[in-house]
């Protein structure tokens, strides 16, 4: 672990160690919101989930408010 937090490689390794690849993507009638402590982790987890064929989007404070609201609406409307 780096001094200021997790590096993306470490984060990915930790997620893969949590057996994410063994799950299948959820049915289109289910969705989950995962809250993380940093923008970097949010982006890394979204990328990892997409790599594992999960429909995923990142919504974080580094995005303009309009874009965050648009992404959230897509999430609510199952438009991933």
What are the defining features of this structure?
80 residues, mainly alpha, 44% helix, flat
Report what the structure shows.
By secondary structure, this protein is mostly helical. The protein has 3 helices and no strands. It has helices at 8-17, 39-51, 65-76. Helix 1 crosses helix 2. 5% of the residues are buried. The mean pLDDT is 78.
Please provide the ordered H/E string of secondary-structure elements.
HHH
What multimeric state do the chains show?
A: single chain
The gross shape turns out to be flat
As a percent range, the share of strand residues is under 5%
Q: How far apart are the first and last residues' alpha carbons, in Å?
A: 32 Å
Number of helices: 3
DSSP helix fraction: 40-55%
Organism: Eschrichtius robustus (California gray whale)
InterPro entries: P-loop_NTPase
Protein name: Helicase C-terminal domain-containing protein
In a nutshell, what does this entry contain?
It comes from Eschrichtius robustus (California gray whale). InterPro entries: P-loop_NTPase. This protein is mainly α and about 80 residues long.
Write the SSE topology:
Layout: H1 8-17, H2 39-51, H3 65-76
